[in-house]
Amino acid sequence: MSENSNNHVKRGLKTRHVSMIALGGSIGTGLFVASGSVISQAGPGGALVAYLLMGLMVYFLMTSLGEMATNTPISGSFAAYAGKYVDPALGFAMGWNYWFNWAITVAVDISTAALVMKFWLPHMPGWIFSAITLALILCVNALSVKSFGETEFWMSLIKVITIFIFLAVGVLTIFGIMGGHYIGLSNFTYKQAPFVGGIPMILAVFVVAGFSFQGTELVGITAGESDNPREAVPRAIKDVFWRIILFYILAIFVIGAIIPYTSPDLLGSSATDVAISPFTIVFKRAGLAAAASIMNAVILTSVISSANSGMYASTRMLYSMAHQGFAPKAMGKTNRRGIPVGALTVTTVIALLTFITSIEGPQIYLWLVAASGLTGFIAWVGIALSHYRFRRAFIKQGHSLDELKYHATWFPIGPIITLILCILVICGQNVNSFANWDWEQIGITYISVPLVLILYIGYKIKHKTHLIPLDKVDVSPSDLRDEEK
Asked: Is pLDDT above 70 for 2?
């Protein structure tokens, strides 16, 4: 039977693709630009603590997702897991919430790509660059999953190489080998450093650090198209955790050592702040004249990579929901190359319409972007809940952990810590808006929470779903050989 008649995606992603997709998904403007604003607020020590704590939480999250993804490797994984291990209504809400987030993010990224290009071509209309970016990622996603994997592999590799060069240049600058004079660790004891504002400020930037790690959950989506998910997913989780911790922690250490936290050069937080990106500043201090152009090219790569991943993630989520009965059946059909064309088309149209509103209706666009703001953290809450229920059901039904191809350590501490920290981050997004009862700011910040609740409660009432009893939860592993047949 052909792939097309089965309406299945193809397992065309190699282990190197899965590892680099997971790694690249968490390295972007959050590290290259916004990390500077974290240091300026909490000091170098506070920034290191915030990123370490968030990195630990992401590790627990990844191991939770890894345990489920190796047992049942499917596209649109965590929405399917929420529906399978907790409540179908939760799966429905998580799936649509996540699809919407990435479809909107694609529009945001193609808009950002145009802004980044203006660095070199300031007089060209921005919409031309946005149209080229959208056409490019549409072609990559329409060809095959292998073309997506290769594109992400090489774009992620550019980011990784940039960080290695940055770390080498940074260390040489700290010791005075580049840049002309010895800096050492004097900026770690400058004025109120290393900890500025104490614990309250660490908690405040913890929220910013969380956004930097958004995208790591993509490894769960790729499990459905990995040629060997039971090897690729655990390896990706192991590699990515250590690399992320090393990249983020060492990069922030270097930035904190070279640039004092009081410097106005650390205030940038968006892709358009390339001229005051901490990476650009460090390269300039080392004597690299073309630093801004080089970093702008890297940031452009990051933005296109994010848009490309967003297109893939939202398409696969819509495809998965169609197979669960949460979306129209047409969204679950694939062509002979294993591409869910219907889901890809709908996602592209929504991204395009969102982009058009950014030009024609800025206020609507603002609310659309706001509505997708907390989606990543909401998805993480769903992953933690699903894993907690999966493992409890697995043991209750008499299974042994030895039966699992990969099992998360530190259960149940891992998912519980993830759950608590994610809820803290969601609640702490804009505490000041409640202090002043600024209803517009409260709405813009938290709108994604009531949207998810409406989806969840609406589906629950319509279909009369209930929390699935632990002894009724389907924890049986999927047989990849049956799937291939």
From this structure: no
